[in-house]
Amino acid sequence: MKFIDEVRILVASGKGGSGCVSFRRGAFMPRGGPDGGDGGHGGAIIITATTRRNTLVDYRWNSTWRAGNGQPGKGQNKKGSQGEDITLLVPIGTAVVDEETDETLADLDVDGATWRVDGGSGGLGNQNFATASRRTPEFATEGQPATERQIRLELRLLAQIGLLGFPNAGKSTLLSRLTAARPRIADYPFTTLVPQLGVVDCGDGNSFTIADLPGLIEGAADGVGLGIRFLKHLERCSAVLHLVAADAEEGVTRRWRTLRRELAAYDADLAARPEVLALSRCDLVDAATLIKARRSLARASGATVLTISSATGLGLDDLRRALVAHVFPAES
Ligand SMILES: Nc1nc2c(ncn2[C@@H]2O[C@H](COP(=O)(O)OP(=O)(O)OP(=O)(O)O)[C@@H](O)[C@H]2O)c(=O)[nH]1
Ligand SMILES: [Mg+2]
Questions:
Q1: Sequence-ordered list of residues with C-beta below 8 angstroms from that of 43, at least 6 positions apart, any chain
Q2: Tens of pLDDT along 1-43?
Q3: Contacts of 257-263 spanning 24+ positions with Cβ under 8 A
Q4: 62-103 pLDDT, tens per residue?
Q5: Based on the structure, what is the number of domains in the chain?
Q6: Domain with 221 in it: what CATH number?
Q7: 139 and 178 fall within a common domain
Q8: Residues of the chain whose pLDDT is less than 50?
Q9: 68 and 32, same structural domain?
Q10: Where a domain ends, among 139, 155, 171?
Q11: Does residue 183 sit in the same domain as residue 85?
């Protein structure tokens, strides 16, 4: 199934049915009192977050959703029936954004969270307007109009840790070592085309989620490579795990700087997020090169630099501990 994380749709609630003008009739009642019923309310559009959906693929081809209109009221005080509601199920983590103003209308970040567009209320039948001095009101009110909204649904994955790095840094390989996820791994760039999630089991009843994202390259912020469109999935992460291949040809510090620049160009807030920094593929360089690389990167970043190898398992326990410290700060 394709990973669809953004769709544009038009949603329209139903309009209210109009109120009815009617008078009681019978053999001995040529013109009885008013008995026009109210119109039914228009149906609502309800967008609900659920664990039963993982992507927005349901909305890819069907871009217009209209709830039913309320029916007009009838004689004998009969209320018109309500318009049918439409419920759209979306994955947890979906934001509803106004397409015209770009305003976030709702962030459906827990199971069952909803956003709705109510239908128009039904009009009032003439039975409502009878008074002592006006026994035969000849009027009723119209139903309220429907509401149409052009919206964008944007899915932002709920992962505590986001994986960041150049292509081939070993992000997917690491995900497969830390979690039960089985992402595609290969020695060519852009193996990962869409985000992948994996759950790290901490063994003590706790767990957290890591998002593996497509690799970034220089110019990503301007659309080079797979671009930055997947970076929105980092927005909810508590920390970014930045992998720099220890065997990077142009030097690890340069690589790290390039990626940081792209991140900052995309979003300053995201660039300010805590970063866990690790040299990956450490089994591919000799000890002296590794020490040098680590020292130079630590100096440039001012951070602790972990060293790992998904091939040999080097440093993976320390890395797991460092991630736990970010995800569960109070407990460590
Ligand atoms: N020797 C060694 N090879 C590794 C290690 N980690 C990853 N690799 C290899 O590096 C290559 C790229 O690994 P991936 O995990 O696909 O890299 P990625 O960062 O996910 O790459 P993209 O999806 O293209 O962004 C594969 O051939 C892996 O087998 C490691 O620790 N040691
Ligand atoms: Mg990958």
A1: 13, 14, 67, 68, 69, 70, 82, 83, 84, 85, 86, 119
A2: 456 788 999 999 999 999 999 998 876 766 778 999 999 999 9
A3: 257/300, 258/218, 259/164, 259/165, 259/166, 259/216, 261/221, 262/216, 262/218, 262/219, 262/220, 262/221, 262/228, 263/164, 263/216, 263/231
A4: 899 999 999 999 999 999 999 999 999 999 989 999 999 999
A5: 2
A6: 3.40.50.300
A7: no
A8: 1
A9: yes
A10: 155
A11: no
Which of 174, 182, 185 has most ligand 1 atoms within 8 Å of CB, for mutation? 185
Ligand 1, atom nearest to 189 Cα: 24
Same domain for 47 and 141, yes or no, is yes
- Whether 150 and 6 share a structural domain: yes
Q: Which of 181, 129, 166, 122 is nearest to 23 (CA)?
A: 129
Select from 121, 137, 155 the last residue of a domain.
155
pTM of the model: 0.73
Looking at residue 45, its pLDDT comes to 98
Query: What pLDDT is attached to residue 1?
Result: 40
Determine the distance separating the centroid of ligand 2 and the alpha carbon of 318, expressed in angstroms: 22
CA of 9 to the centre of ligand 1 (A): 38
The predicted structure's pLDDT at residue 217? 85
185-188-193 Cα angle (round to 5): 60
Note down the domain range covering 247.
Answer: 161-327
186 CA from centroid of ligand 2 (Å): 8
The pLDDT of residue 26: 72
pLDDT of residue 2: 52
Residue whose CA is at the smallest distance from ligand 1 atom 8? 170
Instruction: Identify the CATH number of the domain in which residue 148 sits.
Output: 2.70.210.12
Q: Are residues 104 and 195 in the same domain?
A: no
Q: Are residues 112 and 240 in the same domain?
A: no
Q: Please indicate, yes or no, if residue 332 is contained in any of the structural domains.
A: no
Q: What percent of the chain is predicted at pLDDT more than 70?
A: 97
Do 103 and 225 lie in a common domain? no
